[in-house]
Every structure is written in structure tokens, then in C-alpha cells.
Fold this sequence. Notes:
By secondary structure, this protein is an alpha/beta fold. The protein has one domain (55-260, 300-335): NAD(P)-binding Rossmann-like Domain (Rossmann fold), CATH 3.40.50. The protein has helices at residues 18-27, 71-82, 107-119, 134-147, 171-199, 220-240, 263-271, 283-291, 303-314, and strands at 62-66, 86-91, 124-128, 153-156, 202-207, 245-252, 325-328. The chain has a seven-stranded parallel sheet, with helices on both faces. The two termini are 41 Å apart.
Amino acid sequence: MSDHLWIPDHAGSTPLPPRRAILVGGIAAAAFAGTAAAQSPENAPTAGPVRPGRGSQLTGKIGVVTGAARGIGRAIAVELAANGADVAAIDICGFVSPASNAAPATPEDLAETIRQVQATGRRALAIQADIRNIEALREAADRVEAELGQINVVVANAAIQRWKPLLEMDDSDWRDVIDNNLNGTANTIRAFAPKMVTRKSGRIIVLSSMQGKHGTKDASSYSASKWGILGLMKSAAIELGPHGITVNALIPGLVDTPLTHYETRYREAIAETQSNPPEHPTPEQVWNARKVQVPLKVGWLRPEDVSPAAVFLASDAAAMVTGAEYEVTGGDSAHNV
Ligand SMILES: NC(=O)c1ccc[n+]([C@@H]2O[C@H](COP(=O)([O-])OP(=O)(O)OC[C@H]3O[C@@H](n4cnc5c(N)ncnc54)[C@H](O)[C@@H]3O)[C@@H](O)[C@H]2O)c1
């Protein structure tokens, strides 16, 4: 067998036809245009032939990440840039709601994300905006296109978390979490997708959670918001697929970020396996309690363990992936459907 690349077509027997070479050049979207050429197996969109780096190359693309001041959002912003994309980093950089257990992010946090993006050699744009405000997001979309260029990738990542038993909740503990996480993610799609529809091309990635795949004791509003995001993602994938836009959910397990790095969260993590968690648990106690049940034997992941999956979902190689859930959990996935 020769060592040059050979890709079977759908029939599995003929060499690579020229149309694939055309589609792989970043204009696969043309196949979605639905204008003169009717769709057929021969001109259908495709992820194209095997070539080195195609799951990680984002050269020339423009990405937008919400909640990018820190944590997973920052890692995704920097990872997109490290793989060739210019990035707009959006964050509220301040107080979100009394129904957020985590300390607020700051303008300095967002500036650090910008610094890290620029350190990769890519352009970066910081935008302070609240995902609950769809008009602010529409303005942000216009600004990104004016200052960076046409948006290819949107990552709806911003969220808050509330730890409170259901029967002890104030109204805000329920409503603010649903409004911020679920409505805010829908706002992000509704504000940015129209630009992608115009061009018949785009990638949308939403952040759900393993807590959106199973119930969570004392975090029902967060869990419900993250289940809701999966329904939103699948519905958006159905509606936007004919416009050449993919919509997928990234599902992290427990990741060490300001969202999870405090005593209440530590106690809840230990309580998953122990009936009497310590009043003031240390990070080491959480790590040890969790790692026994995690197949890859870690207590939690790092943000940069999650971000490579966003790069793949944003890449040309993921052209045929939509309506899907991509879990990065260290192995918690093995215990869940
Ligand atoms: N850390 C984990 O263990 C974990 C696990 C599963 C899923 N997730 C999800 O990953 C995403 C990122 O989480 P993280 O752990 O990095 O959290 P984080 O608290 O470190 O970062 C979240 C960022 O979102 C921003 N934000 C929140 N509400 C906003 C709003 N209304 N407008 C603009 N920005 C807003 C915050 O200011 C903050 O910078 C979230 O969707 C979260 O639900 C996290």
C-alpha cells in the first residue's frame, strides 16, 4: 500500500474526488447555501479528508467566549488563540447575583485573559457585558465584527452556581440561576447566530455540566439550568443545522476554578461519598475523597484539561458533529449514562 493519503468516499471504493479538496479549504459552508445546486451525496458538506492538525487548526478564525475572565472560559479563549484564532473575551467582571456562591470576577481578571491571548500572537478584544442583556450582546457582536472580523465560533460559557437546599431557597436562588445560566446562554445564541446564518457557517459551543446530566443535592437550580442548556443546544442544532451551523455542548466534570473553590462546594463534594463531611474541609480532603471514585484517579480537572475539546468542536474536523454532548470528566462519565 502506498503511503500517500487516500480517503474512501461514501461508496467506499473510489479515490478522493476533487470536490473534497474544495470543501476542506474552509468553504464547506458553500454546500449549505441552498441556492442553485441541490444537495446530493456528491456536493454534500463534509469534514473532508484526513490531514495533519485539522482537529486543532483554527487559523484565520474569530472566536467569542463569554465568561472569559477566568476559569474554563479563560482556558478556552487562550486555547482557541493558541491554535490560531483571534478572540473576543466577554465577561461581566463584577457582581452577578446574591445567588452566586463564587466571588465575582474583576476587570483585572479579564485583562489577564487578554494578555494570555495576545501572548500567543493572536489579536484579542475585551468586552465587559452581561449575558442577561441581549441588547448588550447584540452590540458586542457588531463590535467584534467591526474590530476583529467575521465571527466563526461562539462559546457560551458564562454561568453562576448556587448551593442551597430546594426548600430553603429564596426566589432569587432559583430565578437568578435559571435567568443567568439558561436565559443568558439562549441570549448568547440569539445575539450571535444571526451573523452566522447570513454566512451559512458557524460553530456554537455551550457549556453544560455533569450536574446537568444527573440531579445534584443542594444545587437544583444550577442542575436544572444545565439540563435546560442541553435541550436548548439540541433544539438550536436542529434549527441552525440547515444554515450550516453546528451547536454542541461541552460537559466538564469537577474542575478547579473560582466556581468550585470554596468550603461549601468542598463539603458537598465530600458528601457525595461520606455521610459526615468535615465542617472546614481542605482541598486535599476533597481531592482524596473524590479520586477513589474517578477512573483516572484525580480529584478534579484543570481548566486546560477541558479547553482542547472546545478547539476540536470549533474546527473544520468537527463539521459533521452537532446536537452532541462532549464530556471531559476524568472518567465520571463512565458512571453516568
Ligand atoms: N468548574 C466546574 O467544575 C464546572 C463543571 C461543569 C461545568 N462548568 C461550567 O463551565 C463554565 C465556566 O465555569 P467556571 O468553573 O470557569 O466558573 P468561573 O466562576 O470561574 O467563571 C465564570 C465566569 O462567568 C462570568 N459570568 C457569570 N455570569 C455572567 C454574566 N451574567 N455575564 C457575563 N459574565 C458572567 C463570571 O464573571 C466568571 O468570570 C460554566 O458554564 C460552568 O457551569 C464548570
